[in-house]
Write a structure and sequence with these properties.
Alpha-Beta Plaits; 8 strands; two-stranded antiparallel ribbon
Length: 112
């Protein structure tokens, strides 16, 4: 099966250094860094991710072209300058979405 014109998911991961941020510090960081993502062309949703020693994001894109336009050499350079590490980016097509909030299942444009 192939999805034609469907959503694309990217997962970005990077190593973090030092202790985890306190709740107030994390909130301040998110309030500073999250709003600009509202203006990214083609970005439907972004989840900020955090685990011991790892930070990242899960991005839901309208299509691959929009995602590729975001993850440029300049983006990688900015991530390196900000976090001091090279992030990894994983790419996934999303042939089906189960949305328990709306009660819907979106099979997209799956072609058999």
């Amino acid at each position: 099966m192939a999805r034609v014109g469907g959503a694309v998911i990217t997962v970005v991961r990077f190593a973090t250094r030092g202790p985890a941020l306190a709740a107030g510090e994390l909130r301040a960081l998110l309030e500073r860094t999250a709003p600009p993502y509202r203006a990214v062309p083609g970005l439907l949703r972004k989840w900020f991710l955090s685990a011991d020693g790892v930070g990242g994001g899960l991005y839901e894109w309208r299509n691959r072209a929009d995602a590729e336009a975001w993850f440029t050499k300049e983006w990688r350079d900015r991530m390196g300058a900000t976090y001091g590490v090279e992030p990894s980016v994983e790419w996934f097509d999303s042939p089906c979405v189960v949305d328990n909030v709306s009660g819907l299942i979106d099979y997209g444009e799956v072609q058999t």
